[in-house]
Design a protein that fits this description.
single chain, two-stranded antiparallel ribbon, 5 helices, 26% strand, globular
Amino acid sequence: MAQTVADVTACQVLRYACFQGGVGQDIDMFDPLSEHVMIERDGQLICTLRLRVMPDGADLGQTYTGQFYDIGPITGPTLEVGRFCLRDDPFSYDVLRWAWVAITRSVDEHAIKHVFGCASFPGTDPARYAKGFAHLQDTYVGTLKVTPKAIDYKSLFDVRCPDTAALCGLDQIPPLLRSYLQMGGYVSDCPVIDRTLGTLHVFAGLQIDAIPPARVKTLRRLVAQTVGLHIPA
């Protein structure tokens, strides 16, 4: 976990490189309110994400995700996951698994009931992801009422591909979102555009008690292996 200003800066630099390209810092008002996960290999930061715990009854409109969506009622403490980015790396799947270890630790430490956030698709053209959006629409739209605030959005119903076979768009779905869905997660039916980052967002949610017990057991076993790697602030 980021412990110093320099740590947070390193996360912001990686975020800028991944989301916008080039050298710079991706900074917003939610950074000071969040914890920043750092996954390193051989001293190099290769993955970061940020976690923000919201207590039961908190105004979820005051979150990054809440800028784009009116989020329906979610009970219990919640965890917003955001700014996940991964440096090009041949071991991406393993790195993603360790990112979920960090999320699991926070879920257990704060008795989180619901995880949510914006799943990012590079670029701002919904047609580019017609197959992926069709797959989400056909299989993973949840029942929680989530309404986009922005006028700059498309319904998943409006972005269709000729072939809506079950797996036709799986390869267009970002890895973190794919893992949400494999655990029993869901999406809203409207992507919105974040022009600051140059990405499309889809609301993604995961109710903790919907995660298959076998997956929970695996994640907690991995968490146990990280004891001593997490240094509390």
